Amino acid sequence: MKFTINGRSYEAEADIRTSVLDLLREHVGLTGSKKGCDHGQCGACTVLINGRRVNSCLTLAVMHQDDEITTIEGLGTPDDLHPLQAAFVAHDGYQCGYCTPGQICSAVGMLDEAKKGWPSHVSADLEHSDLSDAEISERMSGNICRCAAYPNIVDAIREVAGRAPAGRDVAGADA
Amino acid sequence: MKTFTYEKATSAEAAVADTAATTRFIAGGTNLLDLMKLQVETPEKLVDISRLPLAEIEDMDDGGLRIGALVPNSDLAADSRVIERYEVLSRALLAGASGQLRNKATTGGNLLQRTRCYYFYDTSTPCNKRERGTGCSAIGGFNRILAVLGTSDQCIATHPSDMAVAMRALDATIVTLKHDGDKRRLSIHDFYRLPGDTPDIETVLEPGELITHVELPAPPQGARQLYSKVRDRASYAFALVSVAGVVAVEDGKIASAALAFGGLGPMPWRDAAVEAALVGKVPSDDGFAAAADALLKGAQGFGSNDFKIPLARRTLIACLRDLTGE
Questions:
Q1: Which residue numbers delimit the 2Fe-2S ferredoxin-type domain (chain A) (predicted)?
Q2: DSSP codes, B49-72
Q3: Does the distance separating the beta carbons of A137 and B235 come in below 8 Å?
Q4: What mean pLDDT is predicted for residues B205-226?
């Protein structure tokens, strides 16, 4: 099977049952994408396929040979971080870090959806929604962080979205 | 996961060629692959329909909308025509799953989602839906999330979709292509089957039959639309109770009402008696209570889901206040 991952071509001999996640981790050595639940419930495996965020554990590699797959390794490098990677560092948007690659890939896809004007469950007006903290939380609800770094994850995403921080009731919660 | 053969369909006609009971279509795959990992589903062959040209949303001459079966849930929710004319559908879609899943899950696949009954997923326990005749573990077991309407002594599973509940309130038509090349147009009201003695058979689809489109008639003029979902978490959880409502008030009286319910039954639930209790009446809490009585007349709890009966009553009444209030 042939794939395009982070702009590079790969060939892999893989069982027909192989998920995109297992392809990345077990066949092409891109271990940034993480296996949490393997059932689409936690979001740790989130990657971008043709720019859209999806759970890589819940889709077959064989179905994505003609697509552009982007993983956390394709977003930035240690010397040249993606703005969201830099913001997660600046705002301490993680603790153990296991969910972070999925959080960041998901946030990249989410910000693109918001830019296209897609509404969310918490949008009062489906035609116009600004990226409030409630919007960010709702739109990121497919990514679980068991360390509960959520406030700092929202801070990081808000910064990249270009919004000023909202007032916080909890003293010291801001990074 | 059991292994399978894989075939990429080149056309809808080619996709329906195989009528074997062990063949499955795959598009988004978000539910099917999950079930295959657990060996709840063990297809011998997957027919990949994901690249068929069925991902368009088109206006129809009568003011309705024709939705390709492969339109992803997220695109459907964000479509400006859906937002403008079928807000209940957009709201229902946005209330379901996560951003990642909505990007993958398709319109046709969403209609065919399987129940999230714990026992259906647990292959170490009997389940009539998974394997006919083995028994129901949910009756007498943990059934908090399960059905109170339309159940049988064989199965009390709920249908998990939010989208399908809105589509039932909107009188959707499901267009299919059959194995013999004939097209069928099925009202969503006739599409799902009650569990009875065969809870493993959930729809009237025949072997090999493929959903190609869903059509929505023009929405009723002047109607207010709402989707209300009660669940255990604020986001990313299945409905305990949900209500899709399309209600019009004219001259102080309810002129039309379409109400469908999620989380209560084995299919997206709609009951003409609920609407009959409302239409022609001046909106009032007494009238709303009568509608709730009509909905829940035959409701039966199974212990840990008893709470759904009063919850459904309160949710319906709250929705009707919102749909008819100033």
A1: 1-75
A2: -TTSS---EEE-TTS-EEEETT-B
A3: yes
A4: 96
Q: Output the pLDDT for position A163.
A: 73
CATH at A132: 1.10.150.120
Structure tokens at A114: 């918001």
Count how many pairs of residues, chain A against chain B, have C-beta atoms within 8 Å: 101
Q: Quick check: B122 pLDDT over 70?
A: yes
B20-to-B3, B17, B46 alpha-carbon distances in Å: 16, 9, 11
Cα separation values, B159 from A88, B269, B289, B298, Å: 39, 9, 25, 18
Q: Are residues A52 and A105 in the same domain?
A: no
Q: What's the number of domains chain A is made of?
A: 2
Q: Name the one residue in this structure whose structure tokens are 């994505």.
A: A64
Please check the confidence at residue A171 and state whether its pLDDT lies above 50: no
ipTM of the complex: 0.96
Smallest Cα distance from B98 to chain A, Å: 5
Is the same domain home to A115 and A152? yes
In this predicted structure, what is the pLDDT of residue A43?
Answer: 98
Q: Domain for residue A100, yes or no?
A: yes
Contact between A109 and B6 using a beta-carbon 8 Å cutoff: no
Nearest to B95 among A121, A127, A143 (CB): A121
Q: Is the pLDDT of residue B222 over 80?
A: yes
Q: Tell me the C-alpha distance between B250 and B239, whole Å.
A: 31
**Cβ contacts (< 8 Å) between B95 and chain A: which residues?**
121
Q: Are A98 and A29 in contact (CB under 8 A)?
A: no
Residue B52 structure tokens: 């068929």
Give the long-range contacts of residues A81-87, CB within 8 A, separation 24 or more: A82/A108, A83/A160, A84/A108, A84/A156, A84/A157, A84/A160, A87/A155, A87/A156, A87/A157, A87/A159, A87/A160
**Residues of chain B positioned with their CB less than 8 A from the CB of A15:** 3
pLDDT digits (tens, 9 = 90+) for A117-157: 999 999 999 998 889 999 999 999 999 999 999 999 999 99
B276-306 pLDDT per residue, tens: 999 999 999 999 999 999 999 999 999 999 9
